[in-house]
Design a protein that fits this description.
The chain has a domain of 99 residues. 38% of the residues lie in helices and 8% in strands. It has 4 helices and 4 strands. The strands form 2 sheets. The protein has a two-stranded antiparallel sheet with strand order 1-2. Strands 3-4 form a two-stranded parallel ribbon. A hairpin with a 2-residue loop joins strand 1 and strand 2.
């Protein structure tokens, strides 16, 4: 995972390398079409994108914004940062792509982890347990319907 906008991309062989999620958030289509995977189980942990920004119209004064952030008598407005804009552009592209590739997944899991931030590594055990409890009955049902997937190849 790379955090574009916070860390520079990797430069290798005259190419800039970024996280593949910027163009294909859930690459199940790559697994089935290019890698020949027999079964594709995709896990979508994308955050829900609900942020309310201040409606500033077609112009925004930096001086007014600075005053607003320092003024203790008013509610500080929220405007998108460069990181927010980059993330929105990424989601637009990836969500569009995701809607066209869902048929490549045999099972799509979406654990309820949207309340956790990308860098909350200290909550790993909590996220793991929540995701496990979410996925266990779904995967068990999936395997009951397709028991041949759990058989080992010899």
């Amino acid at each position: 995972m790379s955090l574009q906008g916070y860390l520079p991309p990797i430069s290798e062989g005259g190419t800039l390398l970024l996280d593949g999620g910027y163009t294909n958030l859930l690459p199940g289509d790559v697994m089935s079409n290019q890698m020949g995977a027999r079964t594709v189980i995709a896990v979508d942990v994308s955050p829900e994108d609900v942020v309310e920004y201040y409606d500033y119209g077609s112009n925004l004064s930096g001086l007014w914004l600075l005053w607003n952030s320092w003024n203790p008598f008013v509610t500080t407005v929220r405007v998108p940062s460069m990181g927010d804009l980059s993330q929105k552009l990424m989601w637009v592209s990836s969500v569009k792509h995701l809607s066209t590739v869902k048929e490549n997944f045999d099972l799509l899991l979406t654990p309820p982890v949207h309340d956790y931030g990308t860098l909350e590594y200290d909550k790993f055990d909590e996220i793991y347990e929540l995701s496990y409890q979410y996925a266990k009955p779904i995967v068990e049902k999936f395997l009951k319907e397709k028991p041949y997937l759990a058989m080992s190849r010899k």
